[in-house]
Automatic annotation (TrEMBL):
It is found in: Chromosome, Centromere, Kinetochore; Cytoplasm, Cytoskeleton, Spindle; Nucleus. Residues 1-28 have a biased composition (Low complexity). Keywords: Centromere, Chromosome, Chromosome partition, Cytoplasm, Cytoskeleton, Kinetochore, Microtubule, Nucleus. This is DASH complex subunit DAM1. GO terms for cellular component: DASH complex; mitotic spindle polar microtubule; mitotic spindle pole body. Residues 1-31 are annotated as: Disordered. It comes from Talaromyces stipitatus (strain ATCC 10500 / CBS 375.48 / QM 6759 / NRRL 1006) (Penicillium stipitatum). InterPro entries: DASH_Dam1. Its main location: nucleus. It comes from the Eukaryota. One of its GO terms (biological process) is mitotic sister chromatid biorientation. Belongs to the DASH complex DAM1 family.
Length: 135
């Protein structure tokens, strides 16, 4: 089974456009960037990238400011991290102290009931003393 050779005269289908694209000329690029009429003493034009120099300088300054701000943010982060670790250690120490140390003077629920009863009894006693003093 020999494959039939392709005919050289038969056109091949292509996906490319049939109209050729015109290459852009260098002078049109220069004119587009505003350097068409700026010829210096040596007789040649400056490259178009030179027109972006002020923007690049501003970008460099902004990037330096951004770096400085990130450095300050990093210092703040480190300070907060140290504080958080120290404060967590303090709270842990307080918690361990509460487990290890007994406070016999600390009030218990029964103490609150007795204080309430004593206050009620004191209120009754002061009321009865007032009535006796009036009569």
């Amino acid at each position: 089974m020999d494959a039939a050779p392709r005919s050289a005269s038969r056109p091949r289908p292509t996906s490319r456009p049939t109209t050729p694209l015109r290459p852009s000329s260098r002078s049109s690029i220069r004119n587009f960037h505003g350097y068409g009429s700026s010829i210096n003493a040596a007789g040649y034009e400056e490259p178009a990238i030179n027109s972006l120099e002020p923007q690049f300088a501003e970008l460099a300054d902004s990037m330096a400011d951004l770096e400085a701000n990130f450095m300050h943010l990093q210092l703040m982060h480190e300070s907060l991290s140290r504080f958080s670790e120290s404060f967590a250690s303090f709270l842990y120490g307080l918690n361990m102290n509460a487990f290890c140390v007994d406070f016999p003077e600390a009030p218990i629920p029964e103490s609150f009931k007795r204080a309430k009863e004593a206050k009620a009894n004191q209120g009754k006693n002061s009321h009865s003393l007032r009535t006796v003093a009036i009569h």
